[in-house]
Input
Amino acid sequence: MTSQLRIGNIIFVVGFVASIVIRIPYDKVSQKTPINESRKDVLEKIVLSFMVVGLLILPGLSFAGLLSFAGYRATPGACTVGTSLMAVSLWVFHRSHADLGRNWSVSLEIREGHSLVTGGIYRYLRHPMYTSIYLMAIAQAFLISNWLAGPAAIITFTLMFLSRLGREERMMLDRFGPAYEAYRRTTKRLVPWVW
Ligand code: SAH
Output
């Protein structure tokens, strides 16, 4: 393992741990806030577990040297791009949690007293948290020089995103009706001004 490759791995681990730390206070509030409606079905549980494989298990196996057959040489450029993407991802991850506050859930759930958030970063995007997870997944591909562990989270998060997007917006429409309809008309999904 070259030292460059180790640096990429370390930056990925630091970023991943930072994302968990950012989430801890919101997770505590979420656990205390009763759920009014849950659409967490088997599909949701499967795609959430895929995320563990992409973000945790495959990187872990590669750090343990078990995927070395798929390894390649790291470059300083890739490490720099990955670090920058990770930094932006963590900022967007933090902002989206702060703006959603007690309305945040790890899954498809409506909490007691749930309000529709349209301000802060949600003024520009309907799914900034998913934008941040995509950025982290792309950062992972640049930071981990392994053809299996690097792109793993892009694939697993794409599966989760595809299974969730329509169902989440349907749930929000059912709950907030015209208010969410109007909000949908004035915002993009993942990429500001684009989509
Ligand atoms: N898709 C959003 C939120 C992810 S967390 C994002 O990427 O930023 C998922 C939960 O957030 C959903 O179950 C829903 O209950 C809640 N949620 C999503 N958008 C919301 C909004 N604009 N206002 C309030 N709650 C929202």
User: Anything to note?
Assistant: DSSP finds six helices and two strands in the chain. Residues 47 and 57 are 14 Å apart (CA to CA).
